[in-house]
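Bench notes, afternoon.
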Amino acid sequence: MSSFLCRGFAFAAAAMVFAAQGETSLDGDETERPVYYFVSGNLNAKSGSGHYPMVTMTKRHIVVQRSSKLRKISRDAPIIIQLRPLYTDTVVEARNLEVDFSSSLPARAEAEAISQMFRYEIGTEQEIALLENVASGNGRFRRNYDQIEELKQDSLEFQSSVEDLTLNRTYDLEDRSDTVFLSFELLPEYDYEDAYLAVAVSWTPRGQNTDGDRRTRTQVFSKYIGTLEANKVKEVKVRHNLERIVPKHAECELFLFHGEGQAIATTLSRGLREVGHEKADEIRGQLNP
């Protein structure tokens, strides 16, 4: 299983926003607690022909806000994310991350080829059966051996061409994926209810210059995790069928949330870094008023 550090999602500049961890209760001297900068985002889920702000996620649904009403939609709805920089005074440890891309495409191509060959063979056998029972006019039946041999030869050539085409197609599909698997562990410092994950899978389409101007494509999906308990390891496993086919060298980025869209920093968060003392003193009052 191949492993990737979750990186490679295009950064969108935004105004600084303070991330308050709503369920944390800090003990001891708060001024000594470090403050961290990280990048998270606002999630919007597709409902009908548009995308709407994602309010929260449950085990069975995504909840979005359409106009002034909350609506439940499929938990598998496509997601887009608008990145924003945040500050926090707590970071969840994310460890033992493994990501693997796999594909059912070669197997599906082979199954389709077998089906084509089977249907062609059945048709050939039916035609041969008709030729073997052609009345000769004197009450007997005669066989047209030349036509029968021609049909058999056509069938063999068709099967050979399908096999060659399938082999080439399977080879082309080996580097493309339609399923992603992730496994990792989370170790939080505090309790979080209704935690959920947004995973951004990004790649550069074939034919584009990876050394020059890169136009990265991204698809995002969400996964409900549930309760994270303080100082207790939570093992997370994700299997997701991708909306679009992606190359196996695609990368991913994890965004962790809880409750009503509150971002949680992890040790895998993009741009995670500790803020200097003077800046931290200024921010703490905003984090914990």
